[in-house]
C-alpha cells in the first residue's frame, strides 16, 4: 500500500531550552505535516509519555508522527510509523513485525545502501545522508554534498528505483533549493529549525522552497 510521504520531515532533538513536545508543537503550528520523534536519552516510560503528548499535537494539526528506532513502542501510542537508523537492519522482518499499515523509513549513505533497502520491498522512504557535517547525529559516514545526491538520483533512475529519498544531515535553509534540484524527493531537517531564532519562520521558509 502506497503511503503519504511528506517532502519535508522535521526531526525533534534533545535541546536544553526546548522539549521534544514544544518542538513538535512549534513545527505543527508552522504547518509541519511530518514529525519524527527522535530521542535516545529517556527510558520507555518517559518516551511513551512524550510520544502520547506529541501524538495528540500531531493529531490536532493533521501531521504524521514517526518514531525513531523504538519499534516496541509503535503500538503503544498513536504513532503512524518507525524510522530505522541501522542501515543493515532486516527490513523484511521489521515489516512483518509492524504490519502493512505502518510507515517504515530507513537510513542510507550510498546508492548501494538504497539498492539493498529497495530490494527488500518493505520500506516506504529513505533518509539519505549526511548532506554535510551535522551535530544532530554525529557519524563517520562520508558527506554526500550536492554531487552525491545527483549521482544517487541518476543511479536510481537507471535502475528504476522509485522509492522517495530525502536528503538529511546538516541541511541548512540556504541549501534546500539546490538540494531539491538534484532530484531527491525532499529533505529532513532538525537543527535548521530547532536552533533558529524563530523556528516557525525557519520552517515556513524551508516549506516554501520545497513546494
From TrEMBL:
Protein name per its UniProtKB record: Thiamine-phosphate synthase
Binding-site residues, Mg(2+): 69
Cofactor note: Binds 1 Mg(2+) ion per subunit.
Record-annotated membrane-spanning stretches: none
Cell division keyword on record: no
Residues annotated to bind 2-[(2R,5Z)-2-carboxy-4-methylthiazol-5(2H)-ylidene]ethyl phosphate: 134-136, 170
Keyword set, alphabetical order: Magnesium, Metal-binding, Thiamine biosynthesis, Transferase
EC number(s) recorded for this UniProt protein: 2.5.1.3
Catalyses which reaction(s): 2-(2-carboxy-4-methylthiazol-5-yl)ethyl phosphate + 4-amino-2-methyl-5-(diphosphooxymethyl)pyrimidine + 2 H(+) = thiamine phosphate + CO2 + diphosphate; 4-methyl-5-(2-phosphooxyethyl)-thiazole + 4-amino-2-methyl-5-(diphosphooxymethyl)pyrimidine + H(+) = thiamine phosphate + diphosphate; 2-[(2R,5Z)-2-carboxy-4-methylthiazol-5(2H)-ylidene]ethyl phosphate + 4-amino-2-methyl-5-(diphosphooxymethyl)pyrimidine + 2 H(+) = thiamine phosphate + CO2 + diphosphate
Keyword Magnesium: yes
UniProt superkingdom: Bacteria
Pfam families: TMP-TENI
Similarity comment: Belongs to the thiamine-phosphate synthase family.
Positions that bind 4-amino-2-methyl-5-(diphosphooxymethyl)pyrimidine: 107, 137
Cofactor annotation: Mg(2+)
Sequence ranges assigned to domain Thiamine phosphate synthase/TenI in this UniProt record: 15-193
Amino acid at each position: 500500500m502506497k503511503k503519504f510521504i511528506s517532502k519535508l520531515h522535521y526531526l525533534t532533538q534533545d535541546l536544553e531550552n526546548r522539549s521534544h513536545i514544544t518542538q513538535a508543537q512549534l513545527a505543527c503550528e508552522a504547518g509541519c505535516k511530518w514529525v519524527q520523534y527522535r530521542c535516545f536519552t529517556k527510558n520507555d516510560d518517559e518516551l511513551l509519555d512524550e510520544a502520547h503528548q506529541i501524538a495528540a499535537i500531531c493529531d490536532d494539526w493533521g501531521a504524521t508522527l514517526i518514531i525513531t528506532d523504538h519499534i516496541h513502542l509503535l503500538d503503544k501510542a498513536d504513532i503512524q510509523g518507525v524510522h530505522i537508523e541501522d542501515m543493515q537492519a532486516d527490513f523484511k522482518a521489521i515489516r512483518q513485525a509492524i504490519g502493512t499499515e505502518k510507515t517504515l523509513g530507513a537510513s542510507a549513505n550510498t546508492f548501494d545502501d538504497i539498492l539493498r533497502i529497495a530490494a527488500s520491498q518493505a520500506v516506504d522512504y529513505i533518509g539519505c545522508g549526511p548532506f554535510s557535517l551535522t551535530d544532530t547525529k554525529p557519524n563517520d559516514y562520508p558527506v554526500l554534498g550536492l554531487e552525491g545526491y545527483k549521482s544517487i538520483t541518476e543511479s536510481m533512475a537507471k535502475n528504476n528505483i522509485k522509492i522517495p529519498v530525502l536528503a538529511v544531515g546538516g541541511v541548512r535553509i540556504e541549501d534546500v533549493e539546490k538540494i531539491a534540484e538534484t532530484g531527491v524527493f525532499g529533505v529532513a531537517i532538525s537543527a535548521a529549525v530547532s536552533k533558529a531564532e524563530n523556528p516557525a519562520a525557519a520552517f515556513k521558509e524551508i516549506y516554501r522552497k520545497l513546494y
